[in-house]
Design brief:
By secondary structure, this protein is mostly helical. The protein contains five helices and no strands. It starts with a helix and ends in a 12-residue tail after the last helix.
Length: about 150
């Protein structure tokens, strides 16, 4: 016999699975991370459909109300996913910091090369928007512009 709680759990699980698949289709969620969400929603769907599995798990764990196992699984999976994302975020932050350092070193080397060739008497062509050493007449006429970046979020 299917009760209202089981129907709600099935609908929520299917909704979560469809939402994850749609985010992957729109390229808003990377496949690497979507795997966790797909596994979570399929597990929730399985526990929602097969009530006997949920009842057996509740008996083994000594839980009086079997649907509370669903909540426990959701919380456990949420903690695992949050930990996974924290590790990925930490890794990306280290990569960004390393890229900033490498960019600063490359900029310093380019500046040193420019100064070295200018002092040797060679003319170094510059891009019109080069802010490292702007021409005095252009710097006085043009105010600094801020470039706006548009996000698709």
């Amino acid at each position: 016999m299917i009760d209202r709680l089981q129907i709600v759990a099935i609908v929520v699980s299917l909704g979560m699975l469809l939402a994850v698949l749609e985010l992957v289709r729109r390229h808003k969620l990377v496949e690497e991370y979507s795997l966790w969400w797909i596994v979570c929603s399929v597990a929730m769907l399985a526990l929602s459909i097969w009530r006997e599995l949920l009842d057996a798990a509740a008996r083994e764990l000594g839980v009086y109300y079997p649907p509370s196992i669903l909540l426990m699984v959701v919380i456990l999976v949420a903690f695992v996913v949050l930990l996974w994302f924290s590790v990925a975020l930490s890794r990306q932050r280290r990569q960004i910091e390393r890229l900033f350092e490498e960019t600063a070193i490359l900029n310093a080397e380019m500046r040193d090369l420019r100064l070295g060739t200018e002092s040797a008497g060679e003319v170094v062509p510059r891009a019109p928007n080069d802010r490292a050493n702007p021409r005095p007449e252009r710097a006085a006429l043009e105010p600094d512009r801020v470039r706006q970046v548009q996000c698709d979020d």
